[in-house]
Amino acid sequence: MRKILLVLIFWLGATLAAQSQPVSKEIEALADALGLPEIIEVMRAEGIANGAELAADMFPGRAGSNWSEMVGKIYDTDWMTQIVWTGLAAELDDTDTTPLMAFFTGETGSKIVGLEVSARQALLDETVEEASKDRLAEMTADGDPLLDLVARYIEANDLLEYNVVGAMNSNYAFYTGLQDGGAFDETLTEDQILTDVWSQEEVIRSDTKEWLNAFLVMAYKPLGEAELEAYITLSQTPEGQALNSALFAAFDRLFVDVSHALGRSAATFLIGEDL
Question: Which residues lie below 8 Å from residue 24, measured CB to CB, with a gap of 6+?
């Protein structure tokens, strides 16, 4: 087990060194205004919970504290932060972030960020998540006008497509991690992996659409119509579009790296190596 952890720590250190680049104070300030430090903490908690479910599905009863320790090292918040901050800096290099800062540090923007963070934190509880989906179904049946505003926000930012593509990229990275770790008796071709990943697209799209709408409805329910309209308007500006694209690019890089690391680690447990 010590050998496995040392390899993982080396991999994380090498990846962090490769990603480590100076980030301007403007990008740091924007990330803070967007609530990204809090979101990354939520993502760590989500990742650890998902890691436990992964172990239960793939190698029940064989992981224990070893697997938990490994997953905790993969979801290292300093490493995750560095990847996202560096990605934002690269993607927003030619973008004037002044209007973005003005919005997200203003009354409406800061309120929206707080609601988004609170909703993500609340959804860590599976009971709350199921209740949010039930509430979404009720609102859909009642024709709640908030759903139209949320749909416009999703469309303005192409959120469904971005999230589906991100999930499929992560699944592909997990497969390649398993393969690199020696989990398969025979080497899978890229076409075989892609075929399996694409076979999941319909389920991923359906689940993502439900979760995304349930999350946004929960987050934006306290907002007034004018506040949400202002957010949609910002999303449609060149700066808003650039920010949206930058966020997904940065987080996609993070999820791909995390998924590949999880795949390699899971492979070790599947083949029973060094346990």
Answer: 89
pTM, two decimals, is 0.87
Let me know if residue 275 belongs to a domain: no
Distance between CA 122 and CA 138 in Å, rounded?
19
User: How high is the pLDDT of residue 63?
Assistant: 64
> How far is C-alpha 31 from the chain's CA centre?
15
pLDDT on residue 38: 96
Q: What is residue 47's predicted lDDT score, i.e. its pLDDT?
A: 93
Q: How many other CB atoms are there within 10 angstroms of residue 273's CB atom?
A: 13
Structural domain of 246: 2-270
CA distance linking residue 94 with residue 88, whole number of Å: 11
Under 8 Å between Cβ of 214 and 132:
yes
Q: What is the domain count for the chain?
A: 1
Hey, what amino acid is at 253?
R
* Half-sphere exposure for 218 (CA within 13 Å, toward CB): 23
- Give the type of residue at 173: A
Mean pLDDT, residues 86-96 taken together = 93
